[in-house]
Amino acid sequence: MLLVLGSVLLGARVVSAADATVPVWAVAADLAAGSELTAADLVSVDVRLDDAADAYVSAGTHPEGRTLGRAVQAGELLPRSALEQPDDLVHLALPVQSGYVPPALRRGQLVDVYAIADPAAGAAAAAGGASDESAVTLVVSRAPVQETSGRSEGVLSSTTTTVQVVVAVAADSAPDVLAAVGGRPLVVVLHESVDEGPAG
Question: Quick one: CA dihedral 197, 198, 199, 200, positive or negative?
């Protein structure tokens, strides 16, 4: 009888150890380095990590508002190392005509932003016989998108509607970005992968 009881207790202990999972945060979508975490980015999952548990962010904590120091992939457990503070970043809101914004653009993706010649200025230059040699200028490279707003959907949407695209850039480069834009129309180019480093 004691032997049977001991076997039952040992079996229960093994099952309990096998079920020793801990709740940690995973990410819901691909996010580039420099992205600021929101509640919508986080999904609580129960996993067995054993001694590795301390390497990941517990679901009992609130990392919202923290900035990612490296890219993370959809479904990846959120490592503590990814929350190491990157270079000083600021959020810069850029007005872009919706026709120049990729339809699938969302927060967490990496983009380049180009300033192009103003059509009105181009027409005036053509009339005067002058040419603009700097018709296209790269003003932001590999910047993580923090937010988009103002995009309309459906048949009534217009390619001339202004969409606000908020990107994270190095604080000391923000004045140069604004100077490079110079009031010209902007074009957003989407990178296929978020694994290309934070905004420079």
Answer: negative
Residue 26 lies in a domain: yes
Alpha helices in the chain (DSSP H): 2-18, 119-127, 174-181
Question: Angle 174-176-180 (CA atoms, 0-180°, nearest 5)?
Answer: 120
d(CA 197, CA 200): 8
State the pLDDT confidence band at 59, using cuts at 50, 70 and 90: very high
As a dihedral over the C-alpha atoms of residue 135, residue 190, residue 84, residue 59, rounded to 10 degrees, the angle is 150
> Model pTM?
0.75
Do residue 59 and residue 113 come from a single domain?
Answer: no
Q: Are 180 and 141 in contact (CB under 8 A)?
A: no
Domain containing residue 34: 2-83
Give per-residue pLDDT as tens, 144-179. 999 998 866 544 455 568 999 999 999 999 999 999
Count up the domains in the chain and report the number: 2
In a domain, 37, yes or no: yes
Written as one letter, the residue type at 5 is: L
Residues 100 and 176 in one domain: yes
pLDDT at residue number 49:
86
Choosing from 59, 83, 107, the residue where a domain stops is 83
- CA 167 → CA 15, 61, 67, 108, 110, distances in Å? 49, 26, 13, 9, 9
